[in-house]
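During the no-cost extension, the postdoctoral fellow (Dr. R.K.) reprocessed legacy sequence entries with the updated structure-token encoder. One reprocessed record is reproduced below for audit purposes.
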Amino acid sequence: MAVWEDISKHRTGDVPLVVGGDFNCIMAKEEKKCGKAFHFNPAANDMASFMMSNDLVDPSYIGPAFTWSNNKDIIRSRIFSRLDRFLLSSSILDSFQGLKVKHLTRLASDHCPILCSFLGEVKMVYSHWIKFEDVRASYPMAWQLVKQKWQNKIKELTQLKEDLDREIKILQEVECSPNGLSEAQAEALGFKCAKVKWIEEGDGNTRFFHSLASARRRAKCIDAIKQGDGTVVTEQKDISKVFYEFFKRKWHG
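Re-encoded structure tokens follow.
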């Protein structure tokens, strides 16, 4: 916990923050292979709280899924984990759509190097066509149907938020008790708080919404693709050519 307090203490105002290195912490079961089963322990909870309080995001990456291995000679005894990562302020991801994190080749060390690069602006081509059939708006019942559906949806979301608030309150009361929360309860509390934040800000014109939209754009962007001969292509024009040639052979023989 001390390292998170030190970083938070030295942060100045809203200055964007980049933190990278070996955090020796696993945040999800997908970040570990072999060894003991993953549990959301207090260390992971402290790291998650640090990320939330400082508006930090763990961006997607290119390369091997795991950054550390115990390098055991016996294959059955080998353990793989993702311990190394970059944490960045969401404002950085909003400003640099071309930001990339790469897990490089692990050689002599038991950790693989990680690289965060700020590339030039990535131009994405969007379709300007909006598909809408005007004839639907000519039916009076169409407006009433849309209004009714949205009213029902708003009621459902309101009820869901109230239920989540009630469940969070119960868990927070247990958290303050002498025994505290179990690992499963601590993980559930984090998920429920995230759901409330989404309900409150997810579709609003907020920084939270724009950060999510930016994340979706980055997720849709294809940074690299492996060709049939095993070579990896990273240039956008070459990636487009690979797709073109693939479907050309597929559809035209």
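The longest strand covers residues 84-89. The chain has three domains: 9-123, 134-218, 222-253. The remaining legacy entries will be reprocessed before the final report is submitted.
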